[in-house]
Amino acid sequence: MRRTVCLAALPVALLALAAVGVIGALGQEKAPPITRINAQVLGPQPLGPLPPVMHPPGNPPSAAKIRLGKELYFDTRLSADGTIACATCHNPALGWSDKGPTSEGIHGQLGGRRAPPVSNAAYSPLQFWDGRSPSLEDQAKGPIQNPVEMGNTHEAMIQTVSKISAYQDEFKAVYGEGPITVDQVAEAIACFERTVVTTDSRFDRYARGDHGSLTRLEKEGLEIFNGKGHCTACHWGPYFSDGRFHNLGVPHADPKNPDAGRFAVTKDPRDRGAFKTPTVRDASRRAPYLHDGSEKTLESLIDFYDRGGGRDPNLDPLMVPLGLSAREKAALVAFIKALDSLNPEVADVKPIAAKDLPR
Amino acid sequence: MRKTLTTILAVLAAVLVLSQAALAIPAFARKHAFNCNMCHVAYPKLNDFGQRFRDNGYQIPGQQGLEKTVFQSAFPVGVRTSAGYNLYGAGGQTAGGFHVFGLDLFSGGVVKKNVSYFFVYTPRIDDPAADFNGPGAGDNPSQLASVESAAVVFSNIVRDKLNLRVGRFEPDFHLLSSRRSYYLLQPYEIYDFAGTRSSFDFAANQIGLEATGRFKPGLRYALGYINGTGGTPDNNKLNDLYLTLSKVFGKGEGQSAGQRIGAFGYLGWQPTSTLGSIVSPIGDLNGEGNKTFYRVGGDISLNWRTFNLEGVAFYGSDDRAFNEIDPTRRYDFWGGVAELDWAGCPDNRLVASVMYNWIRPPSDDGIHRVDAYSALARYYVGSWSAVDIAIHAEYTHRVSGSVAKFKENLVTLLIDLAF
Hints:
Chain A contains 14 helices and two strands. By secondary structure, chain A is mainly α. By secondary structure, chain B is mostly beta strands. Chain B is built from four helices and 18 strands. Chain B has helices spanning 2-19, 27-32, 48-55, 189-192, and strands at residues 40-42, 45-46, 77-90, 93-112, 115-122, 146-158, 162-169, 206-215, 219-226, 240-249, 259-270, 291-304, 307-318, 331-344, 350-360, 370-383, 386-400, 406-418. In chain B, the strands form two sheets. Chain B has a 16-stranded antiparallel barrel with strand order 3-4-5-6-7-8-9-10-11-12-13-14-15-16-17-18. In chain B, strands 1-2 form a two-stranded antiparallel sheet. The relative contact order of chain B is 0.15. The interface between A and B is large, with 55 and 65 residues.
């Protein structure tokens, strides 16, 4: 009797403590605002339109810097042999990614992963599939000196850019007197990338109250996306990504030399084979899918999830078979297509022709 | 009768209209901005994600410490209730009426990483009315005020392998959960069967301590030490023990994917006499002379597409002191339930199910044999952010007794609300 009373009293006491905490919280402090960083800490957020992009204090935007960044983004001269630009793999016409399945770099070399989309990358707290880079500025430096991507060195790239008089003038206008640095190149590219933001899609219009902007099938797809399909377990919030890392059990192309994913960065065994959740926005424009491009279409990708992913000892516990019907799969595809950007300034960005780049 | 039917139709029409703008969702779904079907095949039945969520202390699996606590979100409270029309027939007589069949107020959430709670309070309901002849006929109130659950969960004490649940909770030998069953009127009969003089309620939430965990591949265990008297304090100085083991073949938890098989054993003691003023289950007055009872059984859950065939069967044996019919030997019985569920329409908005319950008492017990055949259909209405209203139709044909068979029919149409 005494023991049972004690056991029953424990949760009651904890509930009382919780109530005191809530009352205290109401009186003293509000929950912190949802920023790009703490959204990752606080967990799932509702789907909805993207908020304005936050620029880091150390890299404020300007029209001149954005223009400079765009030119650098499309300039193949940043690579060792003048054949590869950022846009080669992050192609606006291919959903700011590439044709895949994995990215092709200098001298036709194939990488092990496909290019993550640049569109809306401004909202991702960590860059690259394994999150090894904490910012767009840091990310922009990586591929330049990656031997299978642009195959250059930072020093050689700076020498090349510094010899182009039009670039000299533009860097001077943005950064003032002084030598061009790799940080300035990266900052300008990142500044441009923060303009590649999709604020308008038929889903966004629906979320803003225009309920006629989605078809009945697309609305079904939204319901499934946020329920039976379990999509929002990872693809949540306005960015449609938790920015976290998950092992989906994607079969390894080379089982003897598996891609360690996030584990290569953290050395945490729980991260072995885990890759960053990509945004679903504009997904229909950048097939194939998954970090290695192993799923060719949205339909086959949904089939993959419907099976509960692949097999892996470190398979994420969020992965379970879904039991989706053919109609539910079709509804999901329809909804994902409703996330395609209607922003012409993003969807219709044309590469800057070589003749129009700074000389 | 006509007035009642008109009322029901009006309520159903109102629900259908209002549901187009419905945004209210239960506490966990509201916190995470998920639809109910993230965790439920169709509420209240858990899917594999929901089972892992529950096992993980109401935290998203694998995401412990990376979500809002109850102090950082709207305080998580929820309500579930069901009300509707019920028609009962037995022995050539029929009776019907409009009733509130249940009301639960609940709260649950994460206090801090790997520490969470779940609390359910059921207020008193002075219903069914005096003319009610269905299950629970003669009971008034139909629902007593009680703290059905009040438990704290300490998760991942050893990652995935050891979680502790303390307080009053639904024991894990209910892998086929009567509380998350689609059936609202027809119980799992064997859960409610207590023999002739025992008061042990297999279906009840218990007060105590439970350790749970899982091992790869698909092995799961629960070990409990509980009072065995539900929420009722008693003078039973001996607590009860149970162990459950289950194994899932394939991906999932056996709720909506994968094939699960499990076994459990329960060993308990009850006094045959009491000390003090509290009367023992069998009415003696001394509080001593504890005698044993046990339950041993298994459960199975098989999934194919959106079909789920699940069942539980167990053997019960009570000390002869609890055998009212023949006190010279133990009271042994067995029984079970087999249920086939199907979910269809986009997002599982339509659910259909058939179920068979049976109880087989000792051969000299001519009263407690039960065969019950049930069927139901549920349709869920709601908006894109929530599916939390179900229109529910349920039918049961029940035959009890082996000497003189008593046949009953129960038809129910109701609205099941959770928000």
